[in-house]
Amino acid sequence: MSPHTLMTIGQQFERRSWAEPWKIKMVEPLNIISREDREKALINAGFNTFLLRSEDVYIDLLTDSGTGAMSDRQWAGMMLGDEAYAGSRNFYHLEAAVQDFYGYSYVVPTHQGRGAEHLISQAAIKPGQFVPGNMYFTTTRLHQELAGGIFVDVIIDEAHDPQILHPFKGNIDLEKLESLIKREGAEKIAYVSVAGTVNMAGGQPVSMANIKALREMTDKNGIKLYLDATRMVENAFFIQERESGYADKPIAEILKEFCSFTDGAWMSAKKDNLVNIGGWLAVNDRELFEELRNLVVVYEGLHTYGGLAGRDMEAMAIGIAESVHDEHIFSRIGQVRYLGELLTTWGIPIVHPVGGHAIFLDAKAFYPHLKQIEFPAQTLAAELYLDSGIRSMERGIASAGRNAETGDHNYPKLELTRLTIPRRVYTQAHMDVVAESVRAAFENRGKTRGLKMVYEPKYLRFFQARFERI
Ligand code: F0G
Fold this sequence. Notes:
Layout: H1 9-13, H2 35-44, H3 72-78, H4 89-102, E1 106-110, H5 113-124, E2 130-133, H6 138-146, E3 150-153, H7 174-184, E4 192-195, H8 208-221, E5 225-228, H9 232-242, H10 251-259, E6 264-268, E7 279-283, H11 286-299, H12 310-323, H13 326-345, E8 358-362, H14 363-366, H15 376-388, E9 393-395, H16 397-400, E10 416-420, H17 428-443, E11 451-455, E12 466-469
Parallel strand pairs: 2-3, 4-5, 5-6
Antiparallel strand pairs: 1-7, 6-7, 8-10, 9-10, 11-12
Helix pairs in contact: 2-15, 3-12, 4-12, 5-6, 5-11, 9-10, 13-17, 15-17
The structure holds ligand F0G.
């Protein structure tokens, strides 16, 4: 299967072309500084794009988290904030939206995704228990480990290879999971942690067949199944596109069906839910909910605001409803795919198939002369910034951190630089500029030197680590 056998948005709609289902009402000027100033800014930032000032960035593809544009309806909703300490009207709107669109019974708001990850990890993991998951996510795994859990990667092998074309590279390998359950015993498994889509694998989806089979296996063994729903709407798009029987089902229906196979979910609403800040945790079990609702007041805020303003919850409730519109999600993923197709045409190594939220440049293939400990993906992020002021993010050895027991670096198979596309923010012309900058870095690749890490914080080191050129 070549990357082009996957259907494009144009084919889906049987149109020659497609366009965003919105028009621009307000604009924010972009700033571009000189190459000389970029060199200075990069050195000041220790070659870490997280340490750049945003005013020194031209096109910001650091993340799709909280960087989206809200709609006029969401902004109107901001004016309807009920800033009561307790029982805010906006909380009930949010609760109803999560119940309606995701289908869970009980909802706890949190300030963002990691707030929810903290609560579920504390409530559902006993020290020494295993938490199998479809590849790790940085904050998710850290909260599982801080709660005493031992993370085990049970994603299919294909996910670790940037070139293998598999329509559902986010799937859990059921044999890996079964052998873990057999080896350790079901009581040693806290829960299965499944993310749709899988961020670190390149935004790769999980199939409906996989989640159904997982439900069967976990039911048989009395194990809970929790979902990282951060980009689950995008996951639903891939099911609609690629899984038989779903082509004619609306995104909203697919989303709800998928969630129905899980016992609960945590959410970084800064992604799919189209807000700049917010998150939630939702479960079906009343007793667990009571515990989570009690914990949230310790760490986030009262159970009807969870660290958010009323207006934030209103924007989230509206964003949830907008996020499942088929036209929205087609154009969202279509824009990512447009960039991916351009780069592929130019022979630039990226993760295939192109996923939901970002293009992942394969830094190992970009810089075959660099050892992984010379931080190829971090190097590529620095080079792109130097070339054009575009900001991307390392997703390789720096992000993977150290082994909790041995203290050695984790050496992930994937050494990637992520160009993450914010929702409803940039145009296709921006994508062209980005693609050309990547091409320039690619043409220069032979001359590029790697980096060494000169400062390393204890937790989630990639955010604040500093580097120097070798
Ligand atoms: N789960 C996934 C899959 C994520 O991608 C993120 C955040 C979180 C949980 C945590 O949510 O940031 O709201 O606390 N991902 C961002 C990113 C940071 O850039 O990929 P948060």
